[in-house]
Each structure stands twice: as structure tokens, then as C-alpha cells.
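Design request, C-alpha cells follow.
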């Protein structure tokens, strides 16, 4: 098949920096059996083309101005790129806005069936953060219309599927699995204490590292010896580091910034617990990475972690530092229970890995293209 995939970014030509590992794993497996053209909206400032993971990547380039202007220019560039690429059997838009709406419009114009995959807060609005799509008539019509016109729609967790199913009753649960071979290892973690806690997430208000730091303060007051490693891009201009200093966590919490996956994997192999504090997750790729590496999971009941609990994870309500701290303490105090959840999480990640994801989407592509 000839398959077009439209993404916002995450496919840098280096294959290491500014990439989404689960997306690369999917593209690599798909390109091993099909001809794959990946169109990315924002990867590089100037339009460009290059090869990555066996696929041809077309970067549409940066567009300034209002959202409507950007969408219109990207649409013109997308149509031109798809016409140059030749006839495609299917288009797949990852994230509804803007890749998904662009994919649907292009598919309608060129007569190509379209698959859409939810990948963020397109269908939610969290005013206290704020995060998501603020409700408006035009936005509902725009996104709702795209969902109705798509040949198939997927979401990466039951949590994200719930609001989606109100608009598309046939929407499917289909997470983007990880490449388990990268994370499995015979490496034995050092026994705690001291305990190694880990979070891999950009520093922003939706990931809610403020709750993480307040929970860490409570753990310190309980006498727990631990180190917390935070990996991700700082979008808050050092505010979280200032909060950590104010809470007396300078020697306990370490901020490492964004690291390529090869440098993240050793953190997974050393960690005793992976901590999620997000207020919203459509899936949670880092949760699946940690699970594949055999790291026990404790976190907020959003994204895929919510459905892994209680057998493969321990979940608590979002925004509650004391509940999170208690869950961490209870998990560390019961090694048998911790090991049982770790094994269940690893089984989950291995079952729904990148190979499984590729097979499932191939089945959808064949059906909608028939």
C-alpha cells in the first residue's frame, strides 16, 4: 500500500532529537512493508524533504500568522506535496488539529480515505490550567465535521475514547505501542533505599509537576530517602526549579531537560517507581516505556495508566499531593505487590507493543481502502 501520514512534528531528520519515539517505531515498522510518505507541519522552518525510518518525510515548513491563515497555507502546501507524491491508498492524521483536519480536507479533495487518531486535548477543556480546546460553535463544527468525514477514528486510551465515542460511536481503542526491545534488559535494579523516582514529561501546567514537587516535600517529611529525576523540556522558564528550591528539594530533585531516548533508557533501568502527575493524558507514551522497562507505575488516573490500574498500576486523583505521596509510600512498603504490578505492566506493554500497533492500523488501512 501507499500510505500518507500527517503529523505536527516529532520526526526530526536526526532520528534522535525532537522526535516522538512511539511514532518513529510505528513508522519504521509500517515502512518495512509499505511505501510511506510522512508529511510534517512544523519540523523545520523551511520546506524540506528527507528520509527517516524507511519513509519519505516532507516538511511543509513554518507558517506565521493567525490559526486560520496557517491552516490555509499548510493546506495548499499539503495538496501540492500529495500531488507530487502520487496516488495514495489512505491518509492518516495524527492529532485532530491541525494534522487531522488537514488530512480530512485533503482526502475529501483528492478522493483518499482518511484515518484520524486522537493525540491530545482536542476534545477537552480544562479552564483551571488552561488546556485543550475552549468550547466554541465554530470549533465544535470544525472538529466534529472532521470526525464525521473520517473513514475511521482511534484513541490511545479508554480515558480519551470516552469523549470521542460521543461523536463517533465506532471509534476504536488503539494505543501507540513502544518498541519493547529497546527497554527490556537483564539489568538488575539496586535495592532501595535510597529510592529512585522518575518522571519523563515536559515541564508544563498540564503535566502538573507542582503536585509532583509538593508530593516530594511530603515524602521528605515522612523520612523517605529518595531521589527524583525529572526529564523533559522546561516550558515554564525555571518556575518549577524555583518551587523546588523554596520547598527545600535542591538536593532531592534533579531536572535533566530533554534527552534523546538512548539517554532516557538508563533512567528507566535504575528507577524503582515511575510517577505520573498529569491532569490530562490522551495516552501516556512514557508510561508504556516505563512499563516495558519493568518500572512500577504510580500516578494520576488519566490516560492509559487509569485503565492499567489497579492490577498493573496504582492510580490516584489528579492534583492531590497527599494522595500521591501516600500511594508512593504504600507501593514502596510492599515489595510483593510492587513486583506483581510491575510484571503486569510489562505484560501490558509487551502485548500492545509497536508491532501490534502496526498490525492493527494495517488492518484499518486495508478495510477503508477497499
Amino acid at each position: 500500500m501507499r500510505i500518507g501520514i500527517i503529523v505536527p512534528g516529532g520526526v526530526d531528520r536526526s532520528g534522535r532529537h525532537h522526535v516522538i519515539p512511539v511514532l518513529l517505531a510505528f513508522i519504521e515498522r509500517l515502512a518495512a512493508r509499505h511505501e510511506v510518505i510522512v508529511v510534517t507541519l512544523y519540523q523545520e522552518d523551511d520546506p524540506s524533504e528527507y528520509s527517516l525510518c524507511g519513509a519519505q518525510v516532507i516538511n511543509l515548513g513554518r507558517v506565521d500568522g493567525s490559526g486560520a491563515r496557517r491552516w490555509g497555507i499548510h493546506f495548499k502546501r499539503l495538496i501540492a506535496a500529495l500531488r507530487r507524491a502520487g496516488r495514495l491508498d489512505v491518509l492518516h492524521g495524527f492529532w485532530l488539529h491541525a494534522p487531522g483536519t488537514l488530512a480530512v480536507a485533503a482526502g475529501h479533495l483528492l478522493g483518499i480515505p482518511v484515518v484520524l487518531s486522537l493525540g491530545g486535548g482536542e476534545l477537552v477543556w480544562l479552564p483551571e490550567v488552561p488546556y485543550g480546546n475552549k468550547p466554541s460553535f465554530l470549533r465544535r463544527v470544525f472538529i466534529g465535521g472532521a470526525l464525521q468525514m473520517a473513514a475511521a477514528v482511534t484513541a490511545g486510551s479508554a480515558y480519551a475514547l470516552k469523549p470521542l465515542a460521543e461523536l463517533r460511536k465506532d471509534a476504536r481503542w488503539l494505543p501507540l505501542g513502544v518498541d519493547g526491545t529497546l527497554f527490556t534488559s537483564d539489568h538488575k535494579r539496586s535495592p532501595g533505599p535510597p529510592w529512585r523516582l522518575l518522571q519523563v514529561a515536559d515541564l508544563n501546567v498540564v503535566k502538573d509537576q507542582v503536585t509532583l514537587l509538593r508530593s516530594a516535600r511530603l515524602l521528605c517529611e515522612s523520612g523517605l530517602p529518595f531521589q527524583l529525576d525529572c526529564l523533559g523540556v522546561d516550558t515554564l522558564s525555571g518556575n518549577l526549579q524555583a518551587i523546588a528550591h523554596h520547598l527545600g528539594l535542591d538536593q532531592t530533585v534533579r531536572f535533566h531537560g530533554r534527552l534523546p531516548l538512548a539517554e532516557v533508557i538508563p533512567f528507566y533501568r535504575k528507577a524503582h517507581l515511575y510517577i505520573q502527575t498529569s491532569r490530562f493524558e490522551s495516552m501516556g507514551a512514557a508510561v508504556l516505556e516505563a512499563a516495558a522497562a519493568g518500572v512500577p507505575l504510580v500516578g494520576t488516573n488519566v490516560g492509559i495508566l487509569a485503565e492499567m490500574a489497579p492490577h498493573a498500576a496504582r492510580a490516584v486523583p489528579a492534583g492531590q499531593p497527599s494522595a500521591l505521596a501516600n500511594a508512593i509510600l504504600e507501593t514502596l512498603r510492599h515489595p510483593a505487590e510492587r513486583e506483581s504490578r510491575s510484571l503486569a505492566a510489562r505484560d501490558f506493554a509487551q502485548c500492545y507493543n509497536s508491532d501490534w500497533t502496526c498490525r492493527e492500523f494495517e488492518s484499518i488501512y486495508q478495510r477503508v481502502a477497499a
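Comment from the thread starter after seeing the answer: thanks! The domain at 2-177+353-369 is CATH 3.40.50.2000 (Rossmann fold).
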